[in-house]
Design goal:
With 180 residues, this protein is of the alpha+beta class. It is built from six helices and three strands. It has a three-stranded antiparallel sheet, covered by helices on one side.
């Protein structure tokens, strides 16, 4: 009971008791100006620690794992496009060099599947390429490596997927690593 009375006292402090409405102050005071040197914000710290783990990759300075030269597919990449074709669906993945899947698109997704006549033909590959390119740009991935096998490179559907990715703004070749 005492708590309820205390709450009503706090709420009724700003009210005008005669009319029952809230009272507004008659005069307005200007907002106080911040004191200090406006150029003080332009000072740069002498030591800087970078907390973005992908920054070295974006600057093309990060180390690429080379692996064995006889291994297929080669391991010297930061991001790799991998296309998995099953009997009924097509799935495209962007893998980081650590093995994690960063971005993916598949004809198993209902948002893509509902616009397709077939989940396996050339049009499906082109649609997957467009969607994956858009998702890559949203994730900040502009460059990646694609190493198709010779029989994949010759197929029309993989050519359409590659062209849709490049038209979407993603380069299917990474910049060379800058050695210091």
């Amino acid at each position: 009971m005492a708590l309820r009375r205390r709450c009503w006292e706090l709420l009724s402090v700003g009210r005008n008791r005669g009319r029952g409405g809230a009272s507004l102050p008659a005069t307005r005071k200007p907002a106080p100006r911040p004191e200090g040197d406006p150029l003080g914000n332009e000072a740069v710290a002498s030591e800087f620690s970078n907390r973005n783990p992908r920054n070295l990759e974006l600057l093309a300075v990060a180390r690429k794992e080379r692996g064995w030269r006889t291994a297929w597919p080669p391991r010297d990449f930061w991001h790799r496009l991998r296309v998995v074709r099953t009997q009924h669906h097509i799935e495209a993945l962007v893998e980081h060099c650590s093995g994690r899947v960063v971005v993916s698109a598949s004809t198993r997704e209902w948002a893509i599947k509902k616009h397709l006549y077939s989940t396996r033909n050339v049009v499906a590959c082109e649609s997957i390429g467009r969607v994956l390119a858009e998702r890559c740009l949203e994730a900040g991935i502009n460059f990646m490596v694609y190493h198709p096998t010779p029989w994949e490179a010759a197929s029309d559907s993989m050519k359409q997927l590659q062209s849709a990715m490049t038209e979407g703004g993603v380069m299917l070749q990474e910049p060379r690593r800058i050695y210091e």
